[in-house]
Amino acid sequence: MSSILTNNGAAVALNTLKSINSELSKVQDTISTGKSVNSAKDNASVWAISKVMEADVQGFEGISDSLSLADSTVSVASSAAETVSDLLTQIKTKIVSAQEENVDREKIQGDIDALRDQIHSVTGAAQFNGLNLIEGTDDVNVLSSLDRSSDGSISVSTIAIARQDLTTSAGVYGGGGTALDTNATKSATTVDSAGNSANMTIATDSDMSDNTITLSIGGTNLSFAAGDLSGDQDAAALHITSAINALGLEGITAAVNGTNANQIDITSTRAFEDVSLAATGATLSDTTIAERAETIDFSTSAVVNEGDGYKVTVGGASYAYVAGKGETMEDVARGLKMAIDGAEIEGISTSVVQDETTGQWTLKVDNDGSGSSSLALNVVGEDGGTASGGLFGLDSIDVSSASGAAAALENIDTLISSAVDASSAFGSVQGRLETQSEFVSNLTSALKAGIGSLVDADMEETSARLQALQVQQQLGIQSLSMANQAPQSILSLFQ
């Protein structure tokens, strides 16, 4: 049956052509955007995933910028720390020169002052975008990652950049904080110039001609064979006393005891060195003569926190050091040494040592008597202060005197160590920042690739699809044209 009211063929052809045109429109959109999923209606779940991942990509690109800024800031600080280390090394060279007697120490001090001023200039200028990592102690946290958990929540990770204070500030000793006195123990309440002694008693034989006596003082040996000592024990003591003094050992003197003529009193005024004793054929009161210096022993178990301050009183003045972040009792001992040395107390010298067995750090304070023969000694501690700078003591280096030059030689190594440690710390964090930056870059690329695999179109497939749909469109138009010609054939029946 044929009808001029209903053209089923045209309707079918038209619907087919509409479907082809719709598919062709989608393909053209895919070609123009490059995406197979361009909106939520294309594929809601895939589109939602891709949008979350795109947001993460934007976040990681921001993190990459943050890491680059941090790396530049650390690079400036690292360069400054290395420059400070080089300048301190030059200062050490000047200090070594000042150890000689036949030099102009005043001119050397002028050179040291110029180098010190240059260090101040470097530490003040070592900032990037207003952030200086070699001043102060507060850590700087850099955003390093976004961590998305399985439930969709996000947390952030940071890299802490520890400031390395290379200023010369004295810090502020705490006021009204918790006492830390028990962490430091002094050996005496005064520092005296008198030496320490031990005695050797000669046997009571009236005739010493057959006696053999040996004596070792700090590794230097005396030997008296049979026949070397004639007369009674008193005469032998006098002979041995003369022999000891004739050795010319530094800081060692001997004298016959004023009460017991057969007793020899051996005295040592060596500041920071015990003197060992050994003898045969005679009796010693002790095998060691202790060093003259008094000691301040620091706890091996107490934790040193930022702001912990310790103050040593020598004579009528006190000298303090306030610990910074991550410091130890070694830093406290060396800081106090520099504080005392910087005061240039006449006759006072210091040393810092560590016990090899217990690991305990000790500050030694000696008095050679050129100022006062006896000075009061005390030590206290308290928390809650403001930390001293990492180069505390640099400003007080003075080589204009022999004693100042000697003290500066040991102290400069402590300052160089601080600068080297700062450079090392910055180098480590630089490596971590670079590693994280590379990871973030790779992760961003991986996320972009993942998004692409979800929403990007396969252009080869799309090209083939386009050509197929174009052919189908042409065929659909031909079909519709043919279907539209059908009523014309009915017209011929009425002619």
Architecture blueprint of SSEs:
Layout: H1 8-33, H2 44-97, H3 105-125, E1 127-128, E2 131-132, E3 140-148, E4 154-161, E5 184-186, E6 190-192, E7 196-202, E8 213-217, E9 220-224, H4 233-246, E10 252-256, E11 263-268, E12 275-280, E13 282-284, E14 288-289, E15 294-298, E16 309-314, E17 317-322, H5 329-343, E18 348-354, E19 361-367, E20 374-382, H6 402-455, H7 459-484, H8 486-491
Antiparallel strand pairs: 1-2, 3-4, 5-15, 6-20, 7-11, 7-13, 8-9, 8-12, 10-11, 12-14, 15-19, 16-17, 16-20, 18-19
Could you please describe the fold and organization of this structure?
The chain is an alpha+beta fold and 495 residues long. It folds into four domains: 8-34 and 457-494; 35-169 and 391-456, f41 fragment of flagellin, N-terminal domain, CATH 1.20.1330; 171-191 and 294-388, Immunoglobulin-like (Sandwich), CATH 2.60.40; 195-289, Alpha-Beta Plaits. 44% of the residues lie in helices and 21% in strands. The chain has eight helices and 20 strands. The chain has helices at residues 8-33, 44-97, 105-125, 233-246, 329-343, 402-455, 459-484, 486-491; strands spanning 127-128, 131-132, 140-148, 154-161, 184-186, 190-192, 196-202, 213-217, 220-224, 252-256, 263-268, 275-280, 282-284, 288-289, 294-298, 309-314, 317-322, 348-354, 361-367, 374-382. The chain has a four-stranded antiparallel β-sheet. A four-stranded antiparallel β-sheet has the order 6-20-16-17, with helices on one face. The model has no long low-confidence stretch (mean pLDDT 87).
